[in-house]
Amino acid sequence: WDETHFGKMGSYYINRTFFFDVHPPLGKMLIGLAGYLSGYDGTFPFQKPGDRYEQHNYIGMRGVRLCRLFCAFLGSCLVPFAYLTVLELSKSLPAALLTAFILIFDTGCITLSQYILLDPILMFFLMGAVLSMVKCNSCADRPFSASWWFWLSLTGVSLAGAMGVKFVGLFVVLLVGLNTIYDLWDLLGNLSLSLVMFGKHLLARVLCLIVLPLALYTATFAVHFAVLNRSGPGDGFFSSAFQSQLIGNNLHNVSVPE
Question: What main location does UniProt list (predicted)?
Answer without folding.
Answer: membrane
